[in-house]
Design goal:
Blueprint (H helix, E strand, L loop, with lengths): L3 E5 L4 E5 L3 E2 L1 E2 L12 E2 L3 E10 L4 E4 L2 E4 L5 E9 L4 H8 L4 H5 L7 H6 L12 H6 L7 H20 L3 H14 L6 H13 L8 H13 L28 H11 L7 H21 L4 H11 L7 H12 L7 H32 L1 H4 L7 H11 L6 H24 L2 H13 L2 H7 L2 H25 L4 H24 L5 H11 L2 H11 L9 H4 L4 H25 L5 H9 L3 H25 L4 H18 L10 H12 L7
Antiparallel strand pairs: 1-2, 2-4, 3-5, 6-9, 7-8
Helix pairs in contact: 5-13, 6-7, 6-8, 8-9, 9-10, 10-11, 12-13, 13-15, 13-16, 15-16, 15-27, 16-19, 16-20, 16-22, 17-18, 17-20, 20-21, 20-22, 21-24, 22-27, 24-26, 24-27, 25-26
């Protein structure tokens, strides 16, 4: 793969290619034009004289603009005598040595292009636009109306006595995104259902619906409840398809709550999936049932981001034959009121991000504040968890910046120093040894960690600085491992990659900060286990890494980025690309089973578990078909607009 680095100003342009031939063109009248062609084994630029008339140098958008009254003549001789990527990077940066020593802002767009970010655009969400957001649903009149509707819905829960109808109502409330208002009522109903023998029935729909909702809420319900629906060969009875497509759909959704060794649910998934796909071929008529089936076949409910699901289901529920207008109006109004809360949180985050000055000073990094906030809504949409969303949004912004520094901008030597500074958490060492942009990152990170720790000390009387610092140190060490792989051209074994990859995806950092900022999540007796990360964090982090790889490996392969799990497995096994992707998907399926088991038996708080699962679902949504986080395409923009900015019309 060709690698091209470009340094350009009004005097000269240098193009250095790492393969076959190198041309150096100097098209300025002040510097004689010349073209030098050199074999790939040796690249030499000799006695190139560049006139630099400036006291301030800025390299931005592939252009070095030099403007000042002071004149300095700099004669640079660069000898590049190796074809290794690491040496080429080092020698190229000699050309920037003068600018760096004078603390000028350095932007390196060609390096961004080389690592796959060359077509990045500035954030489409301007500060002024975010600050201008205002929602009428903040008004007291809407909040009072919601309270009236809320009480009507509460009465529905009390009045429904049939356990099947109770389960159906809970299911609808969850899908509409309003079940969080009725946690106590729902728990009381599910406690009663769990203690009843409702599974002594031959109705597949009822059994599957009850199993799914009870497992979702942490009840110890066995997959043996499906034994009745098996024939002697332990396969599902073929005639079950005649009992109603709703029962098959319910079974399909329930099957995704399986854990390892529950082969009956593996069989249920294959069986129900086959029947649903055949049904869609014959009945894809846009009906309510048809819409539900297509939606589930794309992603099951267990894999969907709750807030996105609420938006989709609110619009779809209007087509239901059993539409309850009170439920629909309540869901729409609640969605808009909660959205108004998100807007205020986003405005607050926008002011914080502007105060850090990181987007302006470190322009090599992705400016994705709104997208980073969007992730936190996906992690946990509960309107009462604003402190959590603010903290994790800041984590996301800092992770983006540091990640891009390791991937795009830092020399290997500087990255090693930065990693040491973070590992030691030594501010003096960092300020004495790091270049300007790394000092900015380190100080911003230090300030943030202290801010979160101070709030935790106030609220929980627990000193959490060591836990937070360790999570960031583990992340930076993982980034540095990948940087060394990249610079040396090393492709690790599949096992090596996974061991480092579950950390370099950064999920563990988000989870640690979520744990300390969610209400009532922190339990002092769990703190020791956090140091090495509970299985729930490790498993979901690895799952997120593999999803990310599947979504980004093609672009990264084309740009010569650090190897992904796909390439590592291909090297290890000799598999084709398609076979490697299939192997990764099979690992993901196994991981999801183990995640289900951990979620079911974990002593972690339910809100924290929901947040962990929320991030896992967000990764699926954002990376399964590409990289909606990095590249601001229309679909990513539409998702943000619909969840955070545009209210749902209240009239049908």
């Amino acid at each position: 793969m060709d690698k091209t680095y470009v340094v350009e100003n009004n005097c000269a342009q240098y193009v250095i290619n790492t393969r076959l031939v190198t041309t150096v063109t100097v098209p300025s009248s002040s510097v004689p034009s010349s073209t030098v062609t050199v074999p790939s084994s040796t690249v030499t630029v000799s006695s190139a004289t560049v006139a630099v008339s400036s006291a301030t140098v800025a390299i931005s958008s592939a252009t070095m603009a030099i403007a000042s009254t002071a004149v300095a003549i700099v004669t640079t001789t660069v000898a590049i005598v190796t074809t290794t990527k690491n040496k080429l990077h080092t020698e190229l940066r000699i050309a920037f040595k003068v600018a760096r020593s004078q603390s000028f802002t350095l932007l390196h767009p060609s390096m961004a292009a080389e690592r796959g970010f060359g077509d990045l655009q500035p954030s489409i969400w301007k500060y002024e636009y975010i600050q201008s957001l205002i929602s009428e649903y903040k008004e007291e009149s809407h909040i009072k109306k919601r309270e009236v509707l809320k009480e009507e819905v509460r009465m529905m829960l009390y009045k429904v006595e049939n356990h099947v109808h109770q389960l159906e109502l809970i299911d609808i409330l969850q899908r509409l995104g309003v079940a969080y208002h009725f946690k106590d009522e729902i728990k009381s109903i599910l406690d009663n259902i769990y203690n009843m023998e409702i599974f002594n029935t031959n109705i597949l729909y009822t059994t599957a619906l009850g199993f799914r909702i009870l497992r979702q809420h942490g009840y110890d319900i066995s997959a043996d409840v499906f034994d009745f629906f098996l024939k002697e060969s332990n396969n599902f009875k073929e005639h079950q398809s005649s009992i109603g497509i709703e029962g098959i759909l319910s079974l399909y959704e329930a099957s995704f709550y399986l854990v390892e060794e529950e082969t009956i649910l593996d069989d249920a998934k294959k069986y129900s999936s086959k029947i649903l796909k055949e049904h869609v071929k014959r009945n894809n008529d846009g009906s309510y049932t048809s819409l539900l089936i297509n939606h589930s076949l794309e992603y099951p409910l267990h894999w969907r981001v709750p807030r996105w699901e609420a938006l989709w289901f609110i619009n779809t529920y209007e087509k239901s034959f059993n539409l309850n207008l009170t439920l629909l109006q309540f869901a729409k109004l609640d969605f808009n009121i909660v959205q108004s809360i998100y807007q205020e949180e986003l405005k607050d985050m926008s002011r914080w991000w502007k105060r850090t000055n990181l987007a302006e000073k470190l322009s090599f990094a992705r400016d994705r504040l709104v997208e980073n906030f969007f992730w936190t809504v996906g992690m946990n949409f509960n309107p009462e968890f604003g402190s959590f969303r603010r903290a994790v949004t800041k984590v996301n912004c800092l992770v983006n910046t540091i990640d891009d520094m390791y991937e795009i901008f830092g020399t290997l030597e500087d990255l090693e120093l930065f990693t040491k500074a973070i590992e030691r958490w030594d501010i003096s060492f960092g300020m004495d040894n790091l270049p300007y942009h790394m000092k900015m990152c380190f100080l911003a990170l230090n300030n943030f960690v202290n801010e979160v720790a101070f709030e935790s000390l106030q609220n929980n009387e627990v000193y959490i600085v060591p836990f937070l610092r360790k999570s960031w140190a583990d992340l930076c060490k993982a980034y540095f491992v990948e940087a060394k792989w990249y610079y040396s051209g090393y492709i690790p074994t599949f096992e090596e990659y996974l061991e480092n990859g579950w950390r370099s995806i950064s999920s563990h950092v988000l989870f640690l900060h979520a744990y300390f900022t969610l209400p009532n999540a922190l339990k002092k007796e769990q703190l020791d286990s956090l140091k090495e990360y509970p299985n729930m964090i490790r498993l979901t982090s690895l799952f997120c890494r593999l999803v990310n790889d599947l979504g980004t490996y093609k672009r990264e392969k084309e740009t010569g980025d650090a190897p992904s799990s796909i390439q590592c497995y291909m090297k290890k096994s000799g598999a084709s690309e398609a076979e490697a992707c299939e192997h990764v998907r099979s690992i993901m399926n196994t991981l999801w089973k183990n995640i289900n088991k951990e979620a079911h038996h974990s002593s972690l708080s339910q809100d924290f578990i929901d947040s962990i699962l929320g991030l896992t679902r967000m990764v699926l949504a954002m990376y399964d078909h590409g990289d909606y986080h990095t590249f601001q395409d229309s679909e990513a923009k539409s998702g943000i607009l619909s969840l955070i900015i545009q209210p749902i019309p209240l009239t049908r």
